[in-house]
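Holo model, adenosine-5'-triphosphate. Inputs:
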Amino acid sequence: MASVRLDHLSKTYRGGIAALSDLTVTIPNGEFVCILGPSGSGKSTALKLMAGIEEASAGRIFFDNEDVTLTTPERRDVAMVFQSYGLYPQMTVAENIAFPLMLRKMPKAERATQVEEVCRLLGIGKLLRRYPRQLSGGERQRVALGRAIVRKPRVFLLDEPLSNLDANLRVSMRQELRRLHDILGATFIYVTHDQDDALAMGDRVLVLADGRLQQYDAATRVYRYPANRFVASFLGRLPMNFFQGHLETRGDAVTFSNDDLVIAVPDGKPPASGTATLGVRPDAIVVRAGQSGRDAPVGFVRWLEVVQPDLYATVEVGSHRIIAKVPEGEPVEVGNPAYLHFNPGKLHLFDPTTGARLNPAPEEAAPVPRRRREALA
Ligand SMILES: Nc1ncnc2c1ncn2[C@@H]1O[C@H](COP(=O)(O)OP(=O)(O)OP(=O)(O)O)[C@@H](O)[C@H]1O
Ligand SMILES: [Mg+2]
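Output:
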């Protein structure tokens, strides 16, 4: 088990492709960190650099205080699990899992005990004599994990290991993985482009775009307090509503406004004046039928859609099309007038040029769960 520290880590592939640029983060020992980002953002590159499969172009990698930047993959003592499982087709499940122990020349009896133990943990004890082709996707996934676990590596590196699974199996494998992590107490670094994976499993989430770090924060905070406009729009089922406008301060009161909207900005201390982008998630705006809302923007309902379990309306207010949540039982109908209530505690202000967050996120210590049991020790 080890903490992982990346210090100004960069990777430029041949041809000048900058896949990862100047990444500096520390992943604490025993934590479950998800690397989240769109396709091509450098997630797999970051993982391969940690595994030692790719060589860094600049920067350093530390496991605890040991500099492993130039260490071979074998000596780094990490286990990597790929999307494609990478099982040996000519070996049984038991042989596949025992393989890393064989390479270490562990005696046969001891090997068998360890394989059994890991298979019990993963619930694949009945599959030991089967070959990979005789297994379902989820079962193959577990075998690949089993092969990683028997090695008791310092760090687990997982690259989209659930992407071949159907939606239901995915949900249960997420829980399984999280449970495994909690039992093993090892450092897990998990790459995914799926925000649900990241938010469900990660203690912390590291968001990448174009090879650059966007935010590294507790899973709950990347959604609640996105550090910039990219993170704000990448997370969330429905697109965040964005508005261009001006900030104005009178006394203590800060107001955001444009031709169609006037919205009071309550807390935090955004810059007193100037242009700004306001971001509000659809679930932070409530739509009501009618046009009686005092101080509330009024418009016409253009579209209704169900995003389980809720109903959302697209309301046209001046030149804006605003997506907002319809409370249960509210008689909102397409073509009819409606008014909108913005939740004042859930307003995000961004710099219109750089996209950086303007209103500060609360400083509260991020609750990072750490459960460790030495079941396999
Ligand atoms: N061996 C390589 N040679 C040249 N360019 C590469 C190589 N591997 C990756 N790249 C490029 O580096 C960038 C980052 O790739 P990477 O595989 O890290 O992305 P990713 O975030 O894992 O994407 P995905 O979600 O699609 O797996 C991409 O632009 C990709 O085309
Ligand atoms: Mg990848």
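Residues 237-350 form a domain with the OB fold (Dihydrolipoamide Acetyltransferase, E2P) fold (CATH 2.40.50.140). The chain has two domains: 4-232, 237-350.
Archived with the compound record.
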